[in-house]
Design goal:
The protein is mainly α and 245 residues long. It contains ten helices and two strands, in the order H-H-H-E-E-H-H-H-H-H-H-H. Helix content is 67%, strand content 2%. The relative contact order is 0.19. It has one domain: Glycerol uptake facilitator protein, CATH 1.20.1080.10. The radius of gyration is 17 Å and the shape is globular.
């Protein structure tokens, strides 16, 4: 695939991921939405389905839809990934641009779908940011960073294991993995496990005309970017060590 094809595939896949992912959070946390107070498990399953859809949409580019996966594959030393796309520096730029652009677009579309609920005075200010980006339950930089590293390591390492398994279940397997990570490790930070998933919509929150939206919490914003990249790279290195690539 050429640069433009990779960019477009990742943009569309990541956009679908964030539209559905931010959408399920909006449904649960914004007042008067039909799914209001649906609970954390509803969010977990919604994100799993979002990943399922995003992977299918971006299948032509191997469906990274996550910079942590892209960096993990680079660290693993693999030459080609799903779809036969070369893993190299030039293609990495196309992946990253597509992922962050798609994540921003998905956040914007989720806002458009729930605009009346964002404007409603009963929707609380912190919940508006929660639709777009993650935040810690207990703010502790070292602990929050550690949680994101561990969660993303699990994501990328198991994805590499899927690739080494002939029966692998493709998008369904990755979707169920994300549900499991959310249910098991999502409590402390809201499990970004994807730098684009957090940063793209956070930028959307900052620039969109959302009533009474409050701060975009830029002081925390680096944690769900740096943590997942570290976790992804570590998973790629360990995956290579145990011959998963």
């Amino acid at each position: 695939m050429n640069f433009g094809d990779i960019f477009l595939s990742e943009l569309m896949g990541t956009g679908m991921l964030l539209l559905l992912g931010c959408g399920v959070v909006a449904n649960v946390v914004l007042a008067k939405a039909k799914g209001f107070n649906g609970g954390f498990l509803m969010i977990n399953f919604g994100w799993g389905i979002a990943v399922f859809a995003g992977v299918y949409v971006a299948y032509k580019s191997g469906a990274h839809i996550n910079p942590a996966v892209t960096f993990g594959l680079l660290a693993s030393g693999i030459d080609q990934y799903a779809g036969g796309v070369d893993v190299n520096a030039a293609n990495t730029l196309a992946y990253l641009l597509g992922q962050f652009s798609g994540a921003f677009l998905g956040g914007v579309l989720a806002w458009a779908a729930y605009k009346d609920h964002f404007d409603d005075v009963e929707s609380e200010q912190p919940n508006k940011l929660a639709v777009f980006s993650t935040g810690p339950a207990i703010r502790n930089t070292v602990s929050n960073l550690t949680t994101e590293i561990i969660g993303t390591f699990v994501l990328v390492f198991v994805i590499l294991a899927f690739g080494a398994t002939p029966s692998g279940l493709g998008p369904l397997a990755v979707a169920l993995l994300v549900v499991g990570i959310g249910a098991s490790l999502g409590g402390p930070t809201g499990y970004a496990i994807n730098p684009a998933r957090d940063l793209g919509p956070r930028v959307a929150h900052a620039v969109l005309p959302i009533k009474n939206k409050g701060t975009s919490d830029w002081g925390y914003s680096w944690v769900p970017v740096v943590g997942p990249i570290i976790g992804g790279v570590l998973a790629g290195l360990v995956g290579n060590l145990v011959n998963y690539v």
